[in-house]
Prior knowledge:
- This protein is an alpha+beta fold.
- It is built from four helices and seven strands.
- It has helices at about 35-45, 95-100, 125-130, 135-140, and strands at about 55-60, 70-75, 75-80, 80-85, 105-110, 110-120, 145-150.
- Strands 2-1-5-6-7-4-3 form a seven-stranded antiparallel sheet.
- Strand 5 (about 105-110) and strand 6 form a beta hairpin.
- Helix 3 runs antiparallel to helix 4 (about 135-140).
- It is globular.
- The N and C termini lie far apart (about 65 Å).
- Mean pLDDT is about 75; it is low at about 1-25.
Amino acid sequence: MAEHTPRTPPGGSSRRLRHTSNASVSGAHRAPTATLVRVTRPVAGLLAGRRWFPLWAVLHHHGRKSGKEYAVPVAPLVSPDSFVIGLPWGPKTNWVQNVIAADGCTIRWKGVDYRLSDPHLVGVEAALRAAGPFQRRVLRRTRIPAFLELRR
């Protein structure tokens, strides 16, 4: 029996490729790829929270254990009484758990800081209610597993 040796792609390195999909065979939720995050993070960091760029906001929260202050760029859906934030990585991320444990956070949107409270996980229906027409079309085509709603 011949020994298996991995092939090196032409002009490439010999490192092994790995499967990066989080989805199961049943078609469950897929988290955004690391490449997408790596590409959008610098842009989001520069534009989030700016008065003239309402697509992204900066969510400020404190670590539950460390007490350290963190800032996370988010894309909120804004209604008169709440902010609804899509959770493409699901509700178990550290920042979501920190906001829930603290019973709120501060968000800078369109150059204004808002103190938000009463965080709770909601489904796509709440997001659709807060979304505008274009955002509703996008939400219906994506599979965001959960949303975090915060009251103003």
